[in-house]
């Protein structure tokens, strides 16, 4: 890989997970715009892993494509921009959990296609395996499908570049194990779980270099309205907190499952 990789990371912002969120009709979250925001934790892992891959492959470039409210994106990028070097492509639109994954994927795919000098032979599309906002767990996969990328890996914890340029990828599977796969090379989709790297320290030099491009990118952010796909929301409410504990012995798994299904159906 003499020309390096073209690493495109998809990630949006979410309310600080330490805050209490209350749904209201609309649908929306009460005072959502007043809450502090952070980069989606899964997307953050993907960004750090992508920057690590870029550092090991000369000529590589990291681009963060983010769909979210422009004002909130600016606040978050002031902090994230000090972690690792990247370019930003911002789309001004909602980032709540009430948007449709297909509409979101369509907007993101169009933004990736429009990247200057996009080279599919070098493209690694990275993102979060899950999301603290769009928890459908399918947005990254849908973007990959729209870009016609067949090699997709989800639940990735580590990526290693082999001497021949192939990628060795560790994906999470049941039982606390990893599935080791070898991909011949780009294009590929990498949906990261927690990753294997610590969060980088703040680097003022990186922050200053990033800010020169981040602010103009935010000013040029195009509108990207994504709704609910025509879905009508009748009611939104916090999950009920209920705990009923019983200790039962000598019950078969089928009997236990049937009782759980019956209990769920009472609500």
UniProtKB/TrEMBL annotation:
<dbReference type="InterPro" id="IPR014729">
    <property type="entry name" value="Rossmann-like_a/b/a_fold"/>
</dbReference>
<dbReference type="InterPro" id="IPR014730">
    <property type="entry name" value="ETF_a/b_N"/>
</dbReference>
<feature type="domain" description="Electron transfer flavoprotein alpha/beta-subunit N-terminal">
    <location>
        <begin position="36"/>
        <end position="205"/>
    </location>
</feature>
<dbReference type="Pfam" id="PF01012">
    <property type="entry name" value="ETF"/>
</dbReference>
<keyword id="KW-0813">Transport</keyword>
<protein>
    <recommendedName>
        <fullName>Electron transfer flavoprotein alpha/beta-subunit N-terminal domain-containing protein</fullName>
    </recommendedName>
</protein>
<keyword id="KW-0249">Electron transport</keyword>
């Amino acid at each position: 890989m003499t020309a390096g990789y073209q690493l495109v990371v998809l990630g949006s912002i979410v309310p600080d997970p330490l805050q209490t969120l209350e749904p209201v009709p609309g649908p929306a979250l009460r005072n959502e715009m007043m809450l502090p925001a952070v980069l989606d934790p899964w997307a953050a892992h993907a960004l750090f892993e992508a920057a690590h891959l870029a550092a090991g492959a000369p000529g590589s470039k990291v681009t963060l494509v983010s769909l979210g409210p422009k004002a909130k994106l600016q606040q978050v990028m002031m902090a994230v921009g000090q972690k690792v070097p990247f370019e930003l492509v911002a789309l001004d639109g909602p980032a709540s959990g009430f948007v449709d994954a297909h509409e979101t994927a369509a907007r993101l795919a169009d933004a990736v296609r429009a990247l200057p000098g996009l080279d599919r032979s070098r493209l690694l599309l990275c993102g979060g395996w899950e999301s603290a906002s769009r928890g459908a767990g399918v947005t990254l996969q849908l973007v990959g499908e729209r870009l016609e990328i067949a090699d997709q890996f989800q639940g990735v914890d580590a990526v290693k570049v082999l001497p021949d340029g192939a990628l060795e990828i560790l994906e999470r599977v049941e039982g606390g194990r990893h599935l080791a796969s070898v991909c011949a090379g780009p294009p590929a989709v990498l949906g990261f779980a927690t990753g294997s790297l610590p969060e980088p320290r703040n680097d003022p030099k990186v922050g200053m270099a990033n800010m020169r491009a981040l602010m103009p990118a935010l000013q040029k952010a195009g509108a990207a309205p994504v709704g609910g796909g025509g879905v009508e929301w009748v009611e939104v409410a916090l999950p009920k907190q209920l705990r009923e504990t019983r200790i039962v012995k000598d019950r078969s798994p089928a009997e236990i499952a049937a009782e759980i299904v019956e209990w769920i159906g009472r609500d």
